[in-house]
């Protein structure tokens, strides 16, 4: 799929080329979602507070997974308001910038409650998925949060246009996810994408959000049980 066919604008350079297939593409399609879903249900990140990996993190997001370990497991995403200054209309995880002295995990949980009404007590926090760096240098910490069932959500219309709940099985299907290699003439970087017209319609998941999803799925596909 060409990014130009989607709601979100992508500054795709003419030199962009396809990268390798996602790591989970090597798994049998029939068992792909089950293996990754089970690994997400068992996910426990190692200790991060003493490693320095969260140093210089300026923002944090929550990766909410509903009913992990079941065939119907889903990932909760948001479409950001078109009135926002940063990334208007983009598909993202609930999250935002850290307040002064605030730990990244607390910021992720606070923002999820403020943006979509996801109560902290409904979230089983399982640790750090990844720390990714924006093109402009800001570091973003992503934390996995498991939800036993889909809670009642209340959207903050000033920040969020809508909530998107996407089956993990769909995101892992052939042709839904791809990687591109972008170069500015100085350095080359990987950019990730997820798109499925059946569930996401004209929405394209790309950039930081797609990188976090890719990182979670790749880890689970490779390790089976990442604990």
What would you note in describing this structure?
The chain is of the alpha+beta class and 227 residues long. The protein has one domain: Nucleoside Triphosphate Pyrophosphohydrolase (Alpha-Beta Complex). 22% of the residues lie in helices and 30% in strands. It contains 5 helices and 11 strands. The strands form 2 sheets. Strands 2, 3, 4, 5, 6, 7 and 8 form a 7-stranded mixed sheet that branches. Strand 6 (124-133) and strand 7 form a beta hairpin. Helix 1 (29-41) packs across helix 5. The longest helix is centred in the C-terminal third of the chain and has 16 residues, at 208-223. The relative contact order is 0.24.
What is the compact description of this entry?
This protein is of the alpha+beta class and 227 residues long.
Topology diagram in text:
Blueprint: E1 17-18, H1 29-41, E2 57-66, E3 74-80, E4 91-92, E5 95-97, H2 104-116, E6 124-133, E7 139-147, E8 160-167, H3 168-171, E9 177-183, E10 188-194, H4 197-200, E11 205-206, H5 208-223
Parallel strand pairs: 2-7
Antiparallel strand pairs: 1-9, 2-3, 2-5, 3-4, 3-8, 6-7, 9-10, 10-11
The Cα radius of gyration reads 17 Å
Largest sheet: 7 strands, mixed
Number of strands: 11
| Number of separate structural domains | 1
Q: Please name the CATH architecture.
A: Alpha-Beta Complex
Q: Kindly, what is the distance between the CA atoms of the first and last residues, rounded to a whole number of angstroms?
A: 35 Å
CATH class annotation: Alpha Beta
